[in-house]
Amino acid sequence: MEPVQLSVGLQETAPLGDLQRSIGSSRRLPRCSTVSLQTELACPSLVVFSGGTAFNSVAGPLRKLTTHVAHVLPVSDDGGSTAEIVRVIGGPAVGDIRSRCLRLADDRDEEARAVKQLLAHRLPGGSSNEAKAEWYAIVEGRHALWGGVSEPYKHMIRAFLVHFQLQILSQVTREFNFKNGSIGNFFFAGARTFFRSLESAVFLFSRVARIPEGSTVLPAICTEEVITLGAELEDGTVIRGQNNISHPDVAAGPECAGPSQVDKSCHYQPLPSPIRRVFYLSREGTGQEHEVAPQPNPHILQDVQRADAVLYGMGSLYTSICPSLILDGVGEAIAARTDIPKVLLLNGSHDRETSCCGRHGGAMRASDVVQAITDAFNRRSSRAPSLQGHTPPQHSNRTPAAAARSPLSNPPSAYVTTLLVPCGGEVEVDEAALELLGVSHVVEVASVVDADGRVAFDAEELVLAIGQLLVGTGLLPGVTLDSRRVSSSMD
């Protein structure tokens, strides 16, 4: 850890030792009150497994605590304009990665804000001709969005947008639909196809967006192939495609009139049966869809080895979090770190994936979420062996699922040591069941109600609670509190 000057909030309390003892022994802490702190702290290294949307509200405030954060994101999102890019030119889905990069992007000066606005821009969703006309204005450098971007910067960004345009023009049998298109996704796809490397594209995008030194965005899998997420339900049903699993009404595909933005505020029809596990599918080599076990991005394993804490962020449990956990070797790496906090951030509300549970009637409880995380890390076995058995070509970075490492049998406490819960959340916190799983440290964090009426963590208070955990484990030594700056008292 490197020393940095930070300003973070901590809970008002008596001497710091009392705070440390409280964090180490109690199952539930009082909600946090904001206390200002200015001190020379060590900068902890965090690894965050999350999806591209839910954790975005926390990614910015988390920089107040540390800038050394590795954000691990899946590459299986097949909705929105990402689906159109994959349909026409292939490759992995980059929408979640682009979203996190933009959330971390620097916006402290005029040019940085202009670049961020450009890469965050979406084309119109009404008419395909209207969307195409605006795209041409952007790629030709005529659009007002280029205002504030210096000529050298503009030429570099335009070069990759032009390369993307050439890629879609070369697909003579597939016409690209620009509706709802993300300029950031187009830039990403242009860089990926130019370098023929997803990692190189992430590196370039990070530099263009001026992501702070020490913060990294890691695709869970480094691949140039189309990869599909599948879900096996408890009744044996197999659902193919992330959107078909989580947001079926807006799943994009070749038959659609055009890509549309995924509306995650909608209520979707329940799944016919609870999800048993998720897995990856590929057509590589034979053209026949088969289950595969992709190799994880090696940087994930390296970052876990030197991390001071691991977080599992909010988001869709099975389609945002678990796709990164099921990868070969990730469970082993996390379980081996017995010396660090492993923190699960519980969602404030249910979605289609957690609205039913295979262990009991009704929606999933907190203990069920912990068990699902454990099953993903342990690579829970399939009840559908027909999905397995095909051998990818020799140049593939994947192994057939049947040849992957054997499932693990680690207990939940090997993967989750602390549960952070938003106050007033919809997910039942069954503390007795959590105790049986070995998870006895539950911390309640202040919450807010979002625009859709759903409970969510208050981002600042969540970062404060994470800071408390690090103080309690000695990762932020030498902390002193200034109780004169307390804005409210503890409950």
Total helical elements: 16
The best one-word shape is: globular
> Which stretches are low in confidence, meaning pLDDT under 50 for 5 or more residues running?
2-40, 250-256, 388-396, 478-491
Overall residue-averaged pLDDT value: 83
Given helix and strand content, the structural type is alpha/beta
What is the percentage of strand-forming residues?
Answer: 15-25%
Distance between the first and last residues' Cα: 33 Å
Q: Tally of extended strands?
A: 16
Taking all Cα atoms into account, the compactness measure Rg is 23 Å
How do the strands of the widest beta sheet line up side by side?
A: 5-4-3-10-11-13-14
Fraction of residues in helices? 25-40%
Largest sheet: 7 strands, parallel
Task: Name a few traits of the molecule.
16% strand, disordered C terminus, alpha/beta
Which helices and strands occur, and which strands form pairs?
Elements: E1 2-9, H1 16-25, E2 36-43, E3 45-49, H2 56-59, E4 68-73, H3 80-89, H4 95-104, H5 110-120, H6 128-139, H7 151-169, H8 183-195, H9 198-208, E5 216-219, E6 228-233, E7 238-240, H10 242-246, E8 275-282, E9 290-294, H11 298-306, E10 309-312, H12 317-325, H13 330-336, E11 342-345, H14 366-377, E12 398-400, E13 418-422, H15 431-436, E14 441-445, E15 447-449, E16 455-457, H16 459-472
Parallel strand pairs: 3-4, 3-10, 4-5, 10-11, 11-13, 13-14
Antiparallel strand pairs: 1-2, 6-7, 6-8, 8-9, 9-12, 15-16
Helix pairs in contact: 1-16, 7-8, 8-9, 12-14
